[in-house]
Design brief:
Length: 329
């Protein structure tokens, strides 16, 4: 297919976004987690454009965005009570649910898998758009495959300008990391990707045994779990301990990614503090923008990242940091 060049526009015009989507084109949309690269989920020719625009391999399936659980019914063969309860509690919001797909969902969307990933996003612009359209939106994160997800319209523009006609600007994403992905296997509830809904919140809701599968590097159920995902281009290392500051003498062009403010910081290094007060939600919000800042900074060659406490959203943040670091292993 020959590539079309677009003069990419950024704006908050729902009608403009809807017109392009109805014409089978891709539009970047805001969600509360990260920006998505959306297209008509029921139209294979439109879905193909998503894969082409992102350079995404066809084996990596897409999340289908719907307005609510009632809309999800049209695309799921069954909605088991356990998963329905989670939808009731966390939709609209950063939770993606794997359900057996109906035939109306193109195989291209699920990469041939029997389940479709469904999510009702909470961002008001995404919701207005979904309410306006007669079809659901397939949307992966709006970044080139394998790179850090975009959390502002500008991030999308920097990487996809010319490739898409329109970016619907909904401001910076409130959550900042991708959705949590859940599904069931036999009697267990399985977490396939750690994300915006913390495991602890899910555990509070259900008594079913919970299996976290998101650390496996080669689980075909969710290729986004590939170890090398979410990676900046620069070398990123996990910082083993606050007692051992890397110094600019040992590492020229060092960037320090700190979870929270420290009393003493090593001299002559660039630092980004994810949350001054050590707030996990704020740290998640700022994570991807910080990685992009270091990635484009001439005075940074190596990023040292401090891990967060491994609870709540901290688990999802640490998961992204480990994956970014794994690229270098
Ligand atoms: O927060 C999010 O989930 C964002 C926003 C835009 O909604 N989307 C997102 O999409 O992160 P993406 O494509 O970057 O990541 C979706 C992940 C991928 O790892 C994919 O493999 C997995 O979901 N996935 C999608 N459909 C699946 C399916 N049918 N079965 C198993 N995994 C699936
Ligand atoms: Mg992605």
């Amino acid at each position: 297919m020959s590539e079309t060049f677009f003069h990419t526009q950024i704006g908050a015009d729902i009608e403009e976004a809807a017109r392009w989507l109805e014409a089978g084109q891709c539009v970047a949309i805001p969600t509360e987690t990260v920006y998505g690269l959306a297209a008509n989920a029921l139209e294979p020719a439109a879905v193909v454009r998503i894969f082409e625009t992102k350079n995404r391999p066809a084996f990596d399936p897409l999340i289908v965005h719907v307005l609510d659980a009632a809309a999800a019914e049209a695309y799921a063969e069954a909605f088991p009570p356990l998963l329905r309860r989670l939808a009731g509690r966390f939709w609209p919001g950063p939770l993606t649910i794997l359900l057996p797909k109906k035939a109306i969902v193109p195989d291209l969307v699920t990469s041939g898998l029997a389940r479709v990933a469904l999510r009702a996003p909470a961002h008001p612009l995404a919701r207005r758009l979904l309410a306006r359209l007669p079809f659901p939106l397939a949307a992966p994160s709006a970044n080139p495959f394998g790179y850090v997800s975009p959390t502002t319209a500008q991030h999308v523009y920097e990487q996809l300008q010319g490739k898409i006609p329109y970016i619907l600007d909904g401001g910076p994403c409130a959550v900042g990391i991708e959705s949590t992905i859940v599904g069931t296997e036999d009697d267990a509830l399985v977490i396939y990707r750690l994300g915006g809904v913390p495991i602890e919140a899910i555990e509070k809701e259900v008594s079913t045994p919970l299996v976290v599968r998101s650390h496996s590097a080669s689980n075909p159920a969710a290729p986004g779990m590939l170890t090398t995902h979410y990676a900046p281009r620069k070398r990123l290392l996990l910082w083993p301990s606050a007692d051992h500051w890397p110094t600019s003498a040992q590492e020229p062009k060092l960037g320090l990614l700190l979870f929270q403010r420290r009393q003493q910081l090593p001299p002559h290094t660039r630092c980004i503090v994810l949350s001054e007060t050590g707030d996990l939600a704020e740290a998640a919000q700022n994570l991807f923008a910080a990685l992009r800042t270091f990635d484009s900074a001439d005075d940074v060659e190596t990023i040292w990242a401090e891990q967060c406490p491994d609870t709540g959203l901290g688990r999802a943040i640490n998961d992204r940091l480990r994956r970014a670091a794994a690229r270098m292993a």
